[in-house]
Amino acid sequence: MNAIILSIGDELLIGQTINTNSAWIGQLLTTIGIKIIEANTIADSQSAITAALDEGLKKADMMLITGGLGPTSDDLTLPSLAQYFKSELVWDEKVWQNIQHIFHMRGREINESSKQLAYVPHNATVIYNTQGTAPGTIFYQNGKMVVSMPGVPYEMKAMMELDVLPFIKRHFKLPFILNRHILTAGVGETQLASKLTDFERELPEGFKLAYLPNIGKVKLRISGTNADETALKAEMDLQFAKAAEAVERYTYGFDNDTLEQVVGKLLIERSKNLCIAESCSGGYISHLITSVAGSSNYFKGAFITYSNEMKMSQLGVQYSTLEAFGAVSAETVKEMLSGSLKASQADVAIAVSGVAGPGGGSEDKPVGTVYIGIADRHQHYIRKFSFTTHRERNIQLSGVVALMLLRNFLLGRLQTEV
Amino acid sequence: MNAIILSIGDELLIGQTINTNSAWIGQLLTTIGIKIIEANTIADSQSAITAALDEGLKKADMMLITGGLGPTSDDLTLPSLAQYFKSELVWDEKVWQNIQHIFHMRGREINESSKQLAYVPHNATVIYNTQGTAPGTIFYQNGKMVVSMPGVPYEMKAMMELDVLPFIKRHFKLPFILNRHILTAGVGETQLASKLTDFERELPEGFKLAYLPNIGKVKLRISGTNADETALKAEMDLQFAKAAEAVERYTYGFDNDTLEQVVGKLLIERSKNLCIAESCSGGYISHLITSVAGSSNYFKGAFITYSNEMKMSQLGVQYSTLEAFGAVSAETVKEMLSGSLKASQADVAIAVSGVAGPGGGSEDKPVGTVYIGIADRHQHYIRKFSFTTHRERNIQLSGVVALMLLRNFLLGRLQTEV
What we know:
The structure is a homodimer of 418-residue chains.
Chain A: E1 2-8, H1 10-13, H2 21-31, E2 35-42, H3 46-59, E3 62-66, H4 77-84, E4 89-91, H5 93-105, E5 119-121, E6 125-127, E7 136-141, E8 144-149, H6 153-171, E9 177-185, H7 189-195, H8 197-201, E10 207-214, E11 217-225, H9 229-246, E12 251-254, H10 259-269, E13 274-278, H11 284-290, E14 299-305, H12 308-315, H13 319-325, H14 330-344, E15 348-354, E16 369-375, E17 380-386, H15 391-410
Parallel strand pairs in A: 1-2, 1-3, 3-8, 13-14, 13-15
Antiparallel strand pairs in A: 4-5, 6-7, 7-8, 9-11, 9-12, 10-11, 15-16, 16-17
Helix pairs in contact in A: 3-4, 10-15
């Protein structure tokens, strides 16, 4: 079973927008055993869309189209599809109600042009948009499928998960494929690979291991395929357990876990709440923690003490400490930890101080020098890190490493494993 | 003059890597007046590459190919091109010396397989790789150009800038093109369009206006082309000024400005420093502010008071206020403003409290209800917003709107224009 992903939009061609939809869809279809043979981007033009459909349906079983569904005259996907599939556009009251609902939710007046979005092809399955106004459509003819979705990533993703995947599973016979992920942080690919040499060599037929690195983290994907579903599941359980054991000390979670969710769960399990004192990371760690729904159950708050005065007035960092050791020091981080615990009455604290860059570095403490500490009322741990010369990366790495340290602290492993 | 961008690599199709090369090349070619008609991604397969060349050269004047140039057996771009253009592969001593140099620089032993990279097509222009081992090639036949470059972004970028662009300018006659951008926030496309109706209708031949929306912001792009460069520049200045005037009240910057930089510059110009009191936005606004290098010059810090206790202990919000009006209220935000100004001794404060969701909504204050306030020692402004049902968007919208309000406050326009 193979597929072509087709992205429509001048903004993609001229590079105004980086196409992330295509990779997301590619990843999702790959996990269910559909092979992506092409991922093409074309202009908002009826002739280009028609030509792409003609060419694509010769080669592929399905085409997944994103973009070009808005109410303006340069949105040509739906008219092009309607002509291609000889559709009449008919009024869909449910779509119209959804459009009204979305406008109402956003506190905006409905404008006339959006009425047009409620006309859908009579010979297609309509995908109702739970996140926005433009509906999607699925044409399924002669065993081939053409799906059209909005280009807005979160609208597209909701449609893929709620409607398109179930539709594909109903209408196409797919091979048995399983994917499992092991999520690691604070360790490089090379070091992981050295732990997995035996595992990789002994992988059975139909099984593969991939390394997917991303700022401070590496995701390991084990994928397997087999004609027999039961045998596949059993073999995957075996292989997954084997790999997980080999990299256990670097692993924070599996599959769809996120580091911030894992940390949140641990805090809940241990009935601990958290405060954060951030300097160079400037609020990023608090943002990670609060990106998790329900984080108010364990996050008391944070002190973003970007200036020395704030470190002193809010956290009680001593002037003498700043004078003697500087804001970027283990001594200052230690006082940030105790000060934030005291001020917030939280059980556990993270504190971070460093040189994010590009300015502010010295020979002694070059850009990328970051001290990260974790403490409760009884103990504290502080580590010095040397990250990169790049401001954004230093902020992001501070976040990943701080959360990984907090996790290990909560698990009682901070002394040995970071 | 038009072009096709062709990316080669299974890792792109399965979504392991997001294709950023394509957008980068598209942007660069667009600025010199080359129209991108397609951006296609295909597998590491000789038949796919040959088919893409056949199809592509029918439609385009040039094809820019990235990827598939490594020394391993699944790197098939060069053999495919060599066969397509009936090339013999010949030894290139200069490429070989560069490969040795790169290995030496990286402190690595040369392996046998990399010798193969020094064989290049006899009938192509070789592009020497200043950043890595694999050379690029340019085939230029019958007025059509096919460029092949490595998939590693920084290797490709160096080749484009140092060799490919000069080659294109030598061999193709390009039109003069200019692009200018007006950056707006806190206003929808529809409302902007209503302000620009006259402007759009009166746009001269060769000029276009595009709307590029992105969470709370809309970027307007005016592009123009003309055979006469001086006339183009004069006309662009005129059109740009006209559009900028029409949407002036929504505009925070131009071209490469960012909202957080604009706000930072205003704070510096007015010698004001800033503190932030965040509840539902959870540190995101502080993260935006501190993503700007040098923000320590005007950012004192922030209070991420995620719990009511922190609102009371850190900001002096009254228990009675929380009891009577709730944490999500203008009254609480007012006390957050005055409390943060007092505790930080900053000149200006932002305060935000709302329901980010997905939980915590009520009939009275549904998910997406957010109060945002700005204050100095003399005055305060607080507005209520109804954003979306989506946690991440609500956090991001809070950030954009808060910075836009701060900007308008600093410009003395908050009462009339938000």
